[in-house]
Amino acid sequence: MEKALNIPPYVHEQTLFYIGAIISTLAWLGLIYFTHGGIAAVVPVAFIIYLFAQSSFVSYLKGSGALVSTQQFPEIHKAVISCAQKVGMKETPNVYILHLDGMFNAFALRFLHKQYVVLLSDIVDAMDDNPDALNFYIGHEMGHLHRNHTLWDVFLLPSSILPLLGAAYSRSCESTCDIYGAACCEKPESARLGLAALAVGGKKYSKMNTEAYLDQVKETKGFWMSFHELVGNYPWLTKRFARVGKMDENTIPRRHPLAYVFAIFVPKLSITSLIVIYLVFVFVSISSTLKPIYAALENNTANQEYYDDYQSSEDYGSTNYQPMEYVVDEEYEGAPGYFYKYLGGNPDDESSWELVPSREETLERNVQDGEEFFSEPDEHQH
User: Fold this and answer.
1) Which residue from 37, 106, 201, 338 has the least number of CB within 10 angstroms?
2) Where are the domains positioned within the chain?
3) How large is the greatest C-alpha to C-alpha distance in the chain, in angstroms?
4) Is 3 exposed, middle or buried (0-12, 13-18, 19+ CB in 10 A)?
């Protein structure tokens, strides 16, 4: 059994995580407060959508892909066990090889309590002559699982959509996982070979001039490359190539300052974030529609409780308390349609009552000869 390595994260990942966690915590608390806890109704709906969507792919993976084991691709299984031990995984994830229409990649996912690493077949085929380079992909994806990147996705959703911050955290996670991938390789150059295959494909990567490719990193300091990296989830491959090759971070060009000014207006949106935003919008819309209905029901309940209390009191039948929500004022008996409305509190207190019209839209007050009286408005008056 190999000893677990102390693999450090990329320099900015931890800081960006804490900033995102603080912002996301405040955002979730704000939603709970302003929706009076009603946002919790979105959680089961979102979870059900997640279950069906994620279970669909996991089912396809198990039904179509090949599970790497001691009986199935034993050499790759041996590499998986070795990488899991180096990374410090408490439980070795299930690794599948899957053909997916020529896609050249690998990825990690979590479904309920299970963890998976998927190696697409084109990657595996390309690394036949350089099996140590395949360890880079295995280690990279295990890095996502070990660092709990897939676990924190939902919680960090509010901060992940923010311009600059969301994309920056995503890029830092990828850089961290490149460090994990390189740590799982026996030879340092194997990590570069793994990234070279992403750059030029599975047939040409072994013949690529790595020094010439490294020289391309100078181009990343321009405005356009800086802008599109700032709004993207991945660092430029030339930068990743330089970092796994232990190039000094200070020698990697800084981004163009003006790119930050424009990137701040571009949020980082994903399918997951769009679904959650839509669910929240629907919930808030429904809540706004139902709020007056709830208020009316609560008011009716309060009036009924007051009436019940009054009937059971010693003053029932006396003039100290009034049994109805609206009570005709003795002074305005000659003015039908005006009532005293009970506002709550001590019924003996005048401030607990308000004189209001029962049909405010059809009554009008006229003053004539210094006396007040009420009349229905003339149909022909405008």
Assistant:
1) 37
2) 13-269, 319-382
3) 108
4) exposed
